[in-house]
Amino acid sequence: MLGLSRSRTFFAIAAVVVTAIATWLAAGIEAGGIALVGAAVAALIAAPPAEHEATGTLPPAPAADSIADAIEAIFEPVLLVAENRVIAANQAARTLLGEHILDEDVRVAIRHPAAAERLLNPEDASGAPIQLIGLGARDQHWEMRVRNLPGGHRIVHLGDRTGSHAADRIRVDFVANASHELRTPLASILGFIETLEDAADDPETRTRFLRVMDNEARRMQRLIDDLMSLSRIEAEKYRAPDDSVDLPELIDEVHGELAALSPDRAGDIVIDADPVIPVRGDRVQLSQLLHNVIGNAMKYGRAGSPVAVSLRNAGESMVRLSVTDESEGIAPEHLPRLTERFYRVDSSRSRAAGGTGLGLAIVKHIVERHRGRLDIASTVGKGTTLTILLPTAPSPDTLSS
Fold this sequence. Notes:
Layout: H1 2-27, H2 29-46, H3 50-53, H4 64-72, E1 78-82, E2 85-89, H5 91-97, H6 106-110, H7 113-119, E3 130-133, E4 141-148, E5 153-160, H8 162-198, H9 203-235, E6 243-245, H10 247-261, E7 269-273, E8 279-281, H11 283-300, E9 307-314, E10 318-325, H12 347-352, H13 359-369, E11 373-379, E12 383-391, H14 396-400
Parallel strand pairs: 7-9
Antiparallel strand pairs: 1-2, 1-5, 3-4, 4-5, 6-8, 9-10, 10-12, 11-12
């Protein structure tokens, strides 16, 4: 009999694993996780122990400790419910809902109207998720799933979806902002075209309008170029660059290009670079990074004030690039959001200066792809310092060994 019991246990475990794998493949890890927990608890509840195999009598309910051990392995909140009372809850559930929830009515334990409505109907076996907003914290989003188990038990799984909701909001905001940024110059161009039709005999007006249209078209082009660049960088973010780039030489090259574009501020760029070993990177992307951070410092710094570019060794495997301007500075509440797409401290000033709102977002993604670190510090009324840490390229001796 003992051998038969072990065989049944083995096949039950195998069935649980196969079911979980199939669910993962079909519906994702979250659904697979709850399927695995439900199947494991169901096996605990339904599998007859050896002493009941011969008689065929129904076994008693498993000990709460056995069930608690089974669900404790899940990092998200899981509760086991019988007759609307919580008979077991893992640590994650007790942390979220409180240690007092054991033996409490599950509707009181979770305390959410949408959850109570589902839990009032134990016959609802659809397994469709319920969205709970504000459980735990006001801005948290949870997804509740309820599954019926043998013996009148139910398992309640709470999945934290706050991160995915934030990502969805960012995507929605991105599409809305991109549409707005493209529509604004396009509306100007179309409006001036219509006006030109009525002012075709006025050369001065025509020249002025054509200049505005050219500026707006180039603004659209810059935005589209930045969007395409951001898309390419994101597509490559999991593949670290492996070329060796001479950063001091690249800084000098970018300095020359920026000086040609803004001759009146060429003398404001002050470079102080140590002889550093080459960095491991993508030369095109690092050039774009330098254009953005030095160009921003020139754009928002006070006319005639220095833009200090510093390059130093930072330990044995990193270099530190710092760009400091003397600008109006940025208030502390804005600093965490500066690398968000289209986020602007002063929208009118940024647009007037030709900014697309994507410059620092591109810098952030380039730094991430290079496995570096980005930090922005600012003092209102004094200026801003942007610091980037980048890994150095391995030496030829290291590669050969």
